[in-house]
Amino acid sequence: MEALKIIANPLSSFFFTCILLLFANAASAKTHYHDFVIQATPVKRLCKTHNTITVNGQFPGPTLEVNNGDTLVVNVVNRARYNVTIHWHGVRQMRTAWADGPEFITQCPIRPGKSYTYRFTIQGQEGTLWWHAHSSWLRATVYGALIIHPKEGENYPFPKPKRETPILLGEWWDKNPIDVIRQATRTGAAPNVSDAYTFNGQPGDLYKCSSQDTTVVHMDSGDTNLLRVINAGLNQQLFLTVANHKFTVVGADASYVKPFTTSVLMLGPGQTTDVLIKADQPAARYYMAARAYASAQGAPFDNTTTTAILEYKTASCSSNCVKSKPVFPSLPAYNDTATATAFTTKFRSPRKVEVPTEIDENLFITVGLGLNNCASGARSRNCQGPNGTRFTASMNNVSFVLPSNFSLLQAHHKGIPGVFSTDFPAVPPVKFDYTGNVSRSLWQPTRGTRLYNLKYGARVQVVLQGTSIFTAENHPIHLHGYDFYIIAEGFGNFNPKTDTAKFNLVDPPLRNTASVPVNGWAVIRFVADNPGVWLMHCHLDVHITWGLAMAFLVENGISELESLEAPPEDLPVC
């Protein structure tokens, strides 16, 4: 009788339905358990075998597949000789900053012989993300795809493709990547560029000793394939094309986008792009090719081209097309900024979105390189940068220094003094012509571990302004723990009087990594609704090594659901 009374009341009936839906959703969400063993594994590329750091002996590492709402529990055991952490790139980590992974930011590293279990839930994200090491240059080989399908029973907002294929673009050094960055850190010079780019770990037909293992993507005539493209490269933006085919872009950084058609993709390291490709050409073999978008004038870069093969699996093709040479695509010029810009500015959210319009925190942050003068008496072998200097990089003239005895999150959580300060400048200490001819007196930044404090719920706007110090280039800026709206981008110096007219406050794209144009700027907005310490940095690893980073300290809100969870018991100690 009581149950009948509840259902008879329409309001009670509504709440009863809501509770049932809540339980149904909770029931359909799963917990996925994985073991990651970090270990040295013999990997042969470009005719040479290297003892390469891998996960579970695989290169690239395992692909993890989950549904929106699922929980991941990944036990990482370090059997390598280096410290390691794993970052789940683009995962919001709501209240679980302890699982974010950047070394000395949210955790101390996992020492050789030790382990740590990452536990987090995927909430409201669908599409392609990825995971990678976030310690020194280990992510050169320690990386893999993280695929988030819609909740069970829900569909993509586009026709379901016949196939789905992760495409991980990487960079390969014909030596130990850790030795490459250690040598550069010793000398102060730029590190050696990579020797090859890779498709799913394989360089492809244009490199020595590689054609027998070239990655092949199979398709049936008339079918549509969802390619989940990830730029897992360490230091290079990449163009990607497929001969005689076009892409329909449907997602980026685990958010859906308003579909658009393009013949070329450009991804900065850290970015993902989901594209549909239809097998609508004569049955044959077609090269997919990727090579550098190199925006820094005069800077050395790896100018090689990696290939994979798109192969039609049809009867008419099986006998003769395997023998025929694949059709080669045209690629943009290495410095084709116009093509890169045309691509990045096409992104829109599928519908009108809630962009913060009232702003509580308005930051203007310069991003760029610098040169440190060597002290008198310094050895020339440690001053191998231009004119006897050492390379550096900074945000707002602060070159970021990682702590070494505590992680920043631990120091914040426990109130440990002396590890960091919260005086990161909201504007550059000196105003100058950022993209012009910059005075040499501004090329040498200060060093520090300076954070910027944000109240829970603060509505934040950040203008990211590239500089031409030493050389201007496109910087992929990644913010941990958040997605943000990119409301505008442009070239030259950002002008608040005229450039605000370009702001898209209707349907800007939601991303976790923004390509700040060469000699230009980008404007992002987000709401600080996730407590913790969150790194914002250039995803060119050579630049983060030099200090092109800062971090936001987001305070707890009022309730438990607005507060950082307690640290896990197995959190590594420094």
TrEMBL record:
Domain Plastocyanin-like: 38-152, 164-314, 424-556
Reaction(s) this enzyme catalyzes, per UniProt: 4 hydroquinone + O2 = 4 benzosemiquinone + 2 H2O
Cofactor(s) annotated in UniProt: Cu cation
Co-factor binding comment: Binds 4 Cu cations per monomer.
CDD domains: CuRO_1_LCC_plant, CuRO_2_LCC_plant, CuRO_3_LCC_plant
InterPro entries: Cu-oxidase-like_N (IPR011707), Cu-oxidase_2nd (IPR001117), Cu-oxidase_C (IPR011706), Cu-oxidase_fam (IPR045087), Cu_oxidase_CS (IPR033138), Cu_oxidase_Cu_BS (IPR002355), Cupredoxin (IPR008972), CuRO_1_LCC (IPR034288)
Signal listed as a keyword: yes
EC numbers for this chain: 1.10.3.2
GO MF term set: copper ion binding; hydroquinone:oxygen oxidoreductase activity
Localization: Secreted, Extracellular space, Apoplast
Pfam family, one: Cu-oxidase
GO cellular component: apoplast
Keyword annotations from UniProtKB, A to Z: Apoplast, Copper, Glycoprotein, Lignin degradation, Metal-binding, Oxidoreductase, Repeat, Secreted, Signal
Primary enzyme class: oxidoreductase
Stated family: Belongs to the multicopper oxidase family.
Official protein name in the record: Laccase
Origin species: Capsicum baccatum
